[in-house]
């Protein structure tokens, strides 16, 4: 059993900086957890505290039934894979992979057996006699994974393991690592700043910001039911659109005002409201795929915008535009069936069932949207 439990864990560095602020995180046995967030939010610090490479300033870390705050890294039954691979350049692949076994006094025969077993699983058999300098980035990364695997640890910690690889190889390695996770049936904790990597790999994802966990949830919930504006904007590519708007209550109806246009709040969304709404300022979030190119002659209101930039990417067309209620450029994902030209005026129709609403003061979501199971792995 390798359930991991962080209870009110904090990290205060020697200079007094609090890099991790009292986080709670329960990681079940065999889960694939991703810590994701912008640079400097405390992901690596959290991972290094789990590994024992950084002391825990406050709070408790439990692995299974054992409180491990003061346990040495080597006694935690955890293996860590770094972004830099950290391979020994003068040793061949076989010796790199077998190094920790050698340190633990395992005989040469048993070492070789285990290394070959793991090399087989990772398709490294033909490379066992090569030095790291003669390997490609992807192969080095596989050796680093292999070196962690030979010890059969209870928990794998991976710190941005793919960031040195080119885009194509990253995609291949992503699925190799998730497949490896399924085969090994071990707990994985994976750090990345790349939300696509997080969304495609994690069974659950902790979105971190400035030393705190904003939301710890399934990929589907993070995407469709983000708890605040930060999570809504961090998850999803291109980024969610955010309008400054207003909720206006009129004769029992809730209307949504965006600039001088008014839309009635959909019944479905009304049912999801977490609070009794009043006339109030809100941020209205809507994902690019929920903004449609309004068909000619259709008699529903949409936003009139000018296409500032148009990107054709095969099956989709991304149309970028400005709007007076948003400080940043907005984007709609249209089907390429009817092409749009730069400078053309277009009517963008909002799918009002899909909008998200955030309080302008707290930035917390004021909706609770129940997400179906289908999206999750
Ligand atoms: P990145 O994606 O850039 O690696 P991260 O989310 O992993 O970022 P950490 O490396 O955990 O962030 O760092 C969190 C914060 O703690 C940062 O502001 C960093 O500057 C600070 N920090 C890290 N190590 C130390 C240290 N030894 N002393 C003081 N502050 C530190």
From TrEMBL:
InterPro entries documented for this protein: AAA+_ATPase, ABC_transporter-like_ATP-bd, ABC_transporter-like_CS, ABC_transpr_MalK-like, ABC_transpr_MalK/UgpC-like, Mo/tungstate-bd_C_term_dom, NA-bd_OB-fold, OB_MalK-like
Cellular component, GO annotation: ATP-binding cassette (ABC) transporter complex, substrate-binding subunit-containing
ABC transporter domain location: 4-235
GO molecular function: ABC-type transporter activity; ATP binding; ATP hydrolysis activity
Keyword check for NAD: no
Entry annotated with the keyword Transport: yes
GO annotation (BP), single: carbohydrate transport
Keywords: ATP-binding, Nucleotide-binding, Sugar transport, Transport
NCBIfam families, per database record: PRK11650.1
UniProt protein name: Multiple sugar transport system ATP-binding protein
Organism from which the protein derives: Facklamia miroungae
């Amino acid at each position: 059993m390798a359930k991991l439990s962080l209870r009110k864990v904090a990290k205060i560095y020697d200079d007094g900086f609090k890099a991790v602020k009292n986080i709670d995180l329960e990681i079940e046995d065999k889960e694939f957890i991703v810590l994701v967030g912008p640079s400097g939010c405390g992901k690596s610090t959290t991972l290094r505290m789990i590994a024992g490479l950084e002391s825990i300033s406050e709070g408790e870390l439990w692995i299974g039934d054992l409180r491990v705050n003061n346990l040495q890294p080597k006694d935690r039954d955890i293996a860590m894979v770094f972004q830099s691979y950290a391979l020994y350049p003068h040793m061949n692949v076989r010796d790199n992979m077998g190094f920790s076994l050698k340190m633990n006094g395992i005989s040469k025969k048993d070492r070789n057996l285990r290394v070959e077993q793991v090399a087989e699983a990772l398709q490294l058999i033909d490379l066992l006699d090569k030095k790291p300098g003669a390997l490609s980035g992807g192969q080095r990364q596989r050796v680093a994974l292999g070196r962690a695997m030979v010890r059969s640890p209870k928990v794998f910690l991976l710190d941005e393991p793919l960031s040195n690889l080119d885009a194509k190889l990253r995609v291949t390695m992503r699925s190799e690592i998730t497949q490896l996770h399924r085969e090994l049936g071990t707990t994985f904790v994976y750090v990345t700043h790349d939300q696509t990597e997080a969304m495609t790999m994690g069974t659950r994802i902790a979105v971190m910001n400035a030393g705190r966990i904003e939301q710890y949830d399934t990929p589907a919930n993070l995407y469709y039911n983000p708890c605040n504006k930060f999570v809504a904007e961090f998850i999803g590519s291109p980024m969610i659109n955010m309008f400054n708007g207003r909720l206006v209550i009129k004769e029992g109806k809730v209307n949504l005002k965006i600039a001088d246009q008014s839309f009635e709040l959909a019944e479905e969304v009304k049912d999801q409201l977490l609070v009794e709404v009043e006339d109030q300022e809100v941020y209205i979030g809507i994902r690019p795929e929920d903004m449609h190119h309004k068909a000619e002659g259709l008699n529903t209101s949409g936003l009139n915008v000018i296409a500032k930039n148009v990107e054709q990417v095969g099956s989709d067309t991304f149309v970028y535009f400005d709007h007076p209620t948003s400080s940043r450029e907005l984007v709609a994902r249209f089907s390429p069936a009817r092409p749009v030209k730069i400078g053309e005026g277009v009517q963008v129709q909002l799918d009002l069932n899909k909008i998200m609403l955030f309080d302008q003061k707290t930035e917390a979501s004021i909706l609770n949207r129940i997400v179906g199971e289908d999206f999750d792995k």
